[in-house]
Amino acid sequence: MPERPAETAAAAAEQSNEPPRLSDRARKRRGEIMQAAHDVFTAKGYRNGSLGEIADRVGITHQGILHYFGSKEQLLVEVLRDRDTSGRQDFERAERPEGIDFLQHVLRTVAKNTERTGIVQAYTVLSSESVTEEHPAQDWFRDRFDGLRADLTEALRVACGPGEPVSDEQLAMGASALIAVMDGLQVQWLLQPDAVDMPAVVRMTLNALLNSWGRAPIQA
User: 49-65: per-residue pLDDT in tens?
Assistant: First the structure.
């Protein structure tokens, strides 16, 4: 799943929930906890990954984690936010890409994901687990899908340019199809990385959509 680029550095900063005025030591410890949580949640999922195991990996107590994050639920949300923040760095000081530029960003992100298995695995595990009853990341993933669908719908609209208009319904369905392909490919790729070329398949799917609307394909 591609990151949604931040419009400005200030916008990215506003989305961060990291407490202000942390000492260097506290900031370092917080980062260690989030990395350990990422590893545990990736390997075991949210429900089976315990704060005790995360604490053991960092070398602190269960209460030590609660001191920094308040609850296991908040720790999960921070891990997910950190995952997005790491993918926004290229855009923090740039204008938001639109149209074909945004679609090219999506394709670059898919290619980049082939080099960061841990992030892809964490996203895949937690997004799948979030459909279960009362999962604390449900709202985060709903908001994420809503935002990404909107971004892709608008990017497809701009990319289609002049000519016979494409209906809002068709554009929205195209956006949903792209998300479904990207997320589904990640599962296949994690299981058989040598059997799946994620960037090529996503590009083929995107160009098939554009072709179905009578538009030119996006060149590599």
Answer: 899 999 999 999 999 99
- CA dist 73 and 63 (Å) reads 14
Q: Which among 154, 158, 156, 149 has a CA at the least distance from the CA of 176?
A: 149
48's tokens: 């089976």
The CATH class of 18-86 is: mainly alpha
Range name among 85-89, 109-113, 119-123, 177-181 with the lowest pLDDT average: 85-89
| Per-domain boundaries in the chain | 18-86, 95-212
Q: Exposed (0-12), middle (13-18) or buried (19+): which is 126, by Cβ within 10 Å?
A: buried
As a whole number of angstroms, the distance between CA 162 and CA 185 comes to 32
The closest of 105, 115, 97 to 202, measured between CA atoms, is 105
At residue 88, the pLDDT reads 54
Identify the residue whose tokens are 């994620």.
198
